[in-house]
Amino acid sequence: MPLHRDIYWVGRQWAVTGYGMQAIDQRLNGMFDIEVSRLWEDGLAERMCGLKWINILDFDKGLAAARKRFPEPPRKAAPPDASVSSPKDGSAIDQLKQVPMIDMRTQGGTAKAKFLSPWRVFRPR
Fold first, then answer.
1. Helix, strand or coil, per DSSP, at residue 82
2. In a domain, 91, yes or no
3. Rounded distance between C-alpha atoms, residue 39 and residue 1, angstroms
4. Is residue 57 part of a domain?
5. Which tens digits make up the pLDDT trace of 66-92?
6. Count of structural domains within the chain
7. In angstroms, rounded to a whole number, what is the distance separating the alpha carbons of residues 100 and 114?
8. Distance, C-alpha 42 to centroid of its chain
9. Which domain does 35 fall in, by range?
10. What integer pLDDT is reported at residue 61 of this predicted model?
11. What pLDDT is attached to residue 6?
12. Predicted TM-score (pTM) of this structure
């Protein structure tokens, strides 16, 4: 993938562009380009350090420039834990006991699997 038209920083191997962070070497076909939404992932630098061809100092400078250019998006709040919001008197447990159970018995007592042929859709040509 060619470099994005908006270029904000250029290093030896990396460039910070409107796309995010892109490898300058076009022979890589954009395989190592990092989108803006992925710039703040945990362990991003550690994953890239494992590649032998990367100049890690240039990558770190580029990542710092990209993170400065594109601020971290707000993280989604963790869903509230059910144990925190449930009352301490045990009324939530009583509500669970009132849920009716589903009766899943078969008429013969033992059920055997029946394999059917898969559906096929025929389209006129």
1. helix
2. no
3. 18
4. yes
5. 989 988 777 776 666 555 555 555 565
6. 1
7. 28
8. 12
9. 7-69
10. 92
11. 83
12. 0.55
On whether the CB atoms of residues 20 and 67 are closer than 8 A, the answer is: no
Residue bearing tokens 């409107």: 18
pLDDT band at residue 65 under the 50/70/90 scheme: very high
CA pair distance 114, 52, nearest whole angstrom? 54
Mean pLDDT of 18-43: 85
Q: How many residues can be counted in the chain? A: 125
Alpha helices by DSSP H, the chain: 44-49, 56-69, 82-85, 91-97
Give a yes or no: residue 103 inside a domain: no
Residue 27 lies in a domain: yes
Question: Looking at the chain, which runs of residues are DSSP E strands?
Answer: 7-10, 14-17, 20-23, 34-35
**With the C-alpha atoms ordered 24, 26, 27, 28, is the resulting torsion angle positive or negative?**
positive
Tell me which residue has tokens 């994005």. Answer: 4
